Amino acid sequence: MPNLKDQYFNLKNLFALLALLLFFGCASIQSPQGGPKDTKPPKVLSMTPKNQTRNFNAKKIIIEFDEYFNIKDEFKEFSISPDQEKLPVLKKRQKRLEIALQDSLEKNTTYTLNFGKAIADVNEGNVVKNLSYVFSTGPEIDSLSIGGKVINSLSDEPEKDATVMILPLERDTIFGKKRPSIYTTTDSAGTYKLNNLRKGTYKVYALKESGGGDKIYQQISDEVGFIKEPLVIDKNLDNINLQIFKELAPEFRVVDRKLNNDGSISIIFNQQLKSPKITVMDPPSVDVGKYVHFTKNNDTAKIWLKDLSFDSVKVAIQDQGKVLQTLNFTRGKKDTYTRDVIVNDNLSGGKLNPFQRFTLTFPFPMVSADPSKITLLEDSVKRTNFELVKDSVDQLKYYLLYPWKNKKTYDLKLGAGAFTAIFNAKNKDVSKKFTLESQDAYTTLVLNVTVPDTSKSYVVQFLTEKKDIIKFYPVNKNSKITFSKYPAGKYLLRVVYDDNKNGIWDTGSIKGGYQPEKVWYLKALLDLKPNWEREDPLVIPPPTP
Question: Where is the SbsA Ig-like domain (predicted)?
Fold first, then answer.
């Protein structure tokens, strides 16, 4: 008689063995983990019919890649030129892209299928850039081309991934309304090339989109460049270069507006105003005692109203005495507001610039300050001979004046209620520790400027390495300018060819048909050493044509 117990253990061992085999079998087919990130886009292995086919009569085009891919933003990225009423249909089949032509084709015509950034690999989204397919329904293929470079008009840097488009002159009216069918994208050096063009007259544009990627110019967000005169393409053209710029809004508009949770009002404009003013039109009593703060560029206003008993207010935005727009703001009767008086300063890395006053900045207009609630220690010794001074214009600023000394450590304590803002809002305890930066850490540069034409005007600008403006000097003759008392470090020099003599760089306009003012950079980076004064020549060249 069989031993049931032995049979039970034999079955148990068999199941255990099978489980182990299954486990290790599954483990053996897992993909290896880690390794370098895939940065290569799909590669085209074949095109059927072949690219550049003449006497084309197929209904379907097949492009085979070396890996699986996705089709992204087909209706934004894919186009066919000349345009067709019924667009081709794109479908992916494993590693093949099938393009089914839906419309009839014109005789003796060269067609270009432009895929933009529509094709990308599955895993990392690496895009096949500037993929195109060209065919002709006749015996010849259009072979003209144009190429050039796109640069940023102000930074003078090449623009990567800018869209360069051409529009037949008779279709120029679609710019800014519909996307083009003939376009390409610039490479990392800002260069572009458009091939397989037919003889004709075109308008040329460059576009750097901040979002959306629909290749339709949006003035509020995009940068643009253009060739003013129509371009006749009857031969291959090189050096068709474009400068892109941010165009000023042609008409004033409020971009954003809100009643903040601290009771203030914020308004953002689409233009930099020259002489702005804010007035509460209704109720007029609320206009009394208001405080308005404009940003440096006069493109944003913040308003504090002392009287918040209103249900609604009507605010007028004015510039140079002219009312540009009126806005209505409403508040609920039970609305409550939170006001935190946060104290900011002009310290940098725990050090005070010896050529600047110690500055305290607040988020609300200040009403008063109580020096008795402020404690200043110099090397742990209490000092009382400091002075608090309110800015004569900017109600958001106070200055703490004291004969600061080198090699001393300062501890500043702003006790709760040391500063009182509107609505009786007060600061909480704040402590700051700092030293005075030595004057030896600062530098001076003297430039002997030579201008190419004394009938013209120029603006010499000192910039950070990130090309932010630190200081500028308008010049119209050979002169000497001094850049002094600035931290040692690396700086850039830029010259604006100030055509309209207004002392600033002016952008261009498509509607006005004019380009931005030209700029020139001193190619060498200025490395200014600490505790050092040097004198250099600056010979401004004539502007390039």
Answer: 38-137
Check residue 427 and report its DSSP letter.
Answer: B
Distance (Å, whole) CA 542 – CA 537: 16
* Sign of the CA dihedral with 499 first, then 500, 503, and 508 last: negative
pLDDT at 23 over 60: no
| Tokens 């117990």 belong to residue | 5
Bridge partners, residue 291, by sequence: 304
Distance, in Å, from the CA atom of 429 to the CA atom of 198, rounded to the nearest integer, reads: 73
Would you say residue 3 has pLDDT above 90? no
DSSP string for 165-229: EEEEGGGGGGTTTS--SSEEE--TTSEEEEEEEPSEEEEEEEEE-SS---S---TTT-EEEE-SS
Nearest to 237 by CA among 131, 135, 116, 143: 143
Residue closest to 163 by CA, chosen among 200, 218, 121: 218
CA distance 264 to 303: 6
Q: Name the DSSP letter for residue 5.
A: H
Percent of the chain whose pLDDT exceeds 70: 94
Per DSSP (E only), the strands in 96-161 are 96-100, 110-114, 119-121, 132-136, 144-152
Q: How many Å is the Cα radius of gyration of the chain?
A: 33
Residue 382 clears pLDDT 70, i.e. is over it: yes
Q: Tell me, what amino acid is at 106?
A: E
Which residues make beta-bridge pairs with 121? Answer: 69
Amino acid at 243: Q
Quick one: tokens of 442? Answer: 């600062």
The one-letter code for the residue type at 462 is F
Cα 265 to chain center, whole Å? 26
Q: pTM for the full model?
A: 0.81
* Residue with more model confidence, 289 or 34: 289
Angle at 370 between CA 366 and CA 372, to 5 degrees: 160
CA dihedral 398, 402, 403, 404 (to 10 degrees): -80
Q: How confident is the model at residue 25 (pLDDT cuts 50, 70, 90)?
A: very low
Give me the domains of the chain, ranges plus CATH numbers.
44-136 (2.60.40.1220), 144-244 (2.60.40.10), 254-330 (2.60.40), 344-437 (2.60.40.1220), 441-539 (2.60.40.10)
**Cβ-Cβ contacts under 8 Å for 168 (sequence gap 6 or more):** 200, 201, 202
Spatial neighbors of 214 by CB under 8 A, at least 6 apart, are: 76, 179
Query: What are 308's two structure tokens?
Result: 């918040």
Q: Are 481 and 473 in contact (CB under 8 A)?
A: yes
Token output for 84: 């067709």
- What is the average per-residue pLDDT within 294-301? 94
* Cα–Cα distance, 163 to 216 (Å, whole number): 10
Compute, in degrees rounded to 10, the torsion defined by CA atoms 227, 232, 233, 237.
-50
